[in-house]
Write a structure and sequence with these properties.
Strand 5 and strand 6 form a beta hairpin. The strands form 8 sheets. A 5-stranded parallel sheet has the order 3-2-1-7-22, with helices on one face. It has a 5-stranded parallel sheet with strand order 9-20-10-11-16. A 3-stranded antiparallel sheet has the order 4-5-6, with no helix packed on it. The protein is built from 9 helices and 24 strands. The longest helix has 16 residues. By secondary structure, the protein is an alpha/beta fold. It folds into 2 domains: 256 residues, FAD/NAD(P)-binding domain; 164 residues, FAD/NAD(P)-binding domain (3-Layer(bba) Sandwich), CATH 3.50.50.
């Protein structure tokens, strides 16, 4: 086999995949459907384009989000804005020579195995012409926030309805309107807080109890504080978090929120420092799940009925890849993704998924590890398990926490546990990644290079 690599997507995972390919002498081309690197972090006011909204900030701290060989500037706040992050990704891509390998405004429409060990990739180029090229390896890095999941209820809602995928910010059309946000994840809470600044009371409907964590704990970013206890047994970590959250916030019943009977980290936590204050100030009102809707009227499971001018559904995304035939790759609706280390397919040895996981933390530095591992295998320095089915089954049956059922947790991992697992795989190939000296301004110099 040759060493020609195709990377689909120039978001954070795609640019780190390309960087690792370049560092290892692989012939890499990146196809990006937009005109900038950064993926969803490139703000675009057009609906139908998956991007951050106007006032988006990172929900994991820069300390545990930055690429380990390219620290964020010291001038960045603990939680950078989307503008700062897009500039960071642009700088990263320029520094490592990735920009020269990216074909912007190129949309991949089909990818399929060809010959004994190749991939045929068909794309629409920036002049609208359909073309096909053949590669030896394929790295899929287009993310999993592309195809929205829309909720359905009996009846028909006739007001303004949108998915968080199309939410770009609150404008004058929202002012003094009655707004309902469906969901209780990070996007739902951010949108609820944002909308409540311009509208009347925002109602937030949730199907199940959630854990809501503040962004700062004792003056430190939440993930920096939590990292200090990563060595503890997981149950002790969970009970410690439960006690800490209760001490900081008090019982959820005081906020009109349902009490969560599961332990923290068994479900993906929601990080928002404003939500609880806005609830107690009467700007946001929690509501149970929706029973039905008709016209502008929504009926909730507790029998409450209320009219809403605008409904925004922050109800997640399907894990889909529009360029794959579903008979080849189909993860839509799966409650677990059958990939070794969330990246290697059992049957297709020259196919890698980079960044297809949802950590309790940030994807980017661990996507760098995955890309590093992929390059090591391409170079013959890493050997995947001989019995891939058994290895994948073992991984699926030994999840990091007792994640709840459903597609929402199909890709869930614990950041530090997954980081340790990937470090172990890399060590087998002779790459020994140490513990980064968190807090040191000059950390990570040459931290992720492969010799």
């Amino acid at each position: 086999m040759g060493n020609r690599v195709c990377v689909i997507g120039a978001g954070p995972s795609g640019i780190t995949a390309a960087k690792n390919c370049i560092q290892n002498g692989l012939d890499v081309i990146v196809f990006e459907k937009n005109d900038k690197v950064g993926g969803n972090w490139v703000f675009n006011s057009k609906t139908g384009h998956s991007s951050v909204y106007e006032n988006t900030f990172l929900i994991s701290s820069k300390t545990w989000s930055e690429f380990e060989d390219y620290p964020m500037p010291s001038s960045f706040p603990d939680y950078p804005s989307h503008v700062q992050l897009q500039n960071y990704f642009e700088s990263y891509a320029r520094h490592f020579g990735v920009l020269d390998r990216v074909k912007f405004d190129h949309t991949v429409i089909d990818a399929k195995p060809v010959g004994a060990n190749g991939w045929s990739v068909t794309f629409i180029d920036n002049s609208g012409v359909e073309k096909t090229e053949v590669f030896d390896y394929l790295m899929v890095s287009n993310g999993h926030h592309n195809v929205p999941k829309y909720p359905t209820y009996p009846g028909e809602y006739t007001g303004k309805f949108l998915h968080s995928h199309d939410f770009k910010g609150v404008d004058e059309s929202w002012r003094d309107k009655q707004v309902l946000v469906i969901g209780a994840g990070n996007s739902a809470c951010d949108i609820s807080v944002e909308a409540s600044r311009a509208t009347k009371t925002v109602h937030m409907s949730m199907r199940s109890p959630q854990w809501f964590f503040p962004k700062f704990i004792f003056g430190q970013p939440g993930d920096v504080f939590a990292a200090r206890s990563k060595w503890l047994p997981k149950k002790l970590r969970q009970y410690g978090l439960k006690t800490l959250v209760r001490l900081i916030q008090g019982p959820y019943s005081r906020y009109g929120l349902p009490e969560n009977t599961t332990l923290p980290l068994n479900t993906h936590p929601t990080l928002n420092s404003d939500l609880m204050d806005f609830i107690r100030h009467g700007r946001i009102k929690p509501m149970p799940a929706i029973k039905s809707w008709n016209g502008l009227t929504v009926e909730f499971l507790d029998g409450t009925r209320k009219d809403f001018d605008i409904i925004c559904a922050a109800t997640g995304y399907w894990t889909t890849f529009p360029f794959f035939n579903e008979e080849l790759i189909n993860f839509k609706g799966l409650v677990q993704i059958p990939l070794y280390k969330k990246m290697m397919h059992e049957k297709h040895k020259n196919l890698y998924f980079i960044g297809l996981f949802q950590p309790i933390g940030c994807i980017w530095p661990l996507a760098d590890y995955q890309a590093k591992l992929a390059c090591l295998e391409i170079l013959g320095k890493y050997q995947r398990p001989k019995d891939m089915k058994a290895a994948i089954d073992h991984e699926l049956n030994n999840r990091h926490f007792d994640f709840g059922p459903g597609q929402r947790h199909a890709m869930e991992v614990d950041f530090h546990t997954f980081r340790s697992e990937l470090k172990k795989e890399l060590k087998q190939a002779g790459v020994n990644i140490g513990n980064p000296p968190v807090g040191n301004a000059k950390r990570y110099k040459d931290f992720s290079k492969i010799n």
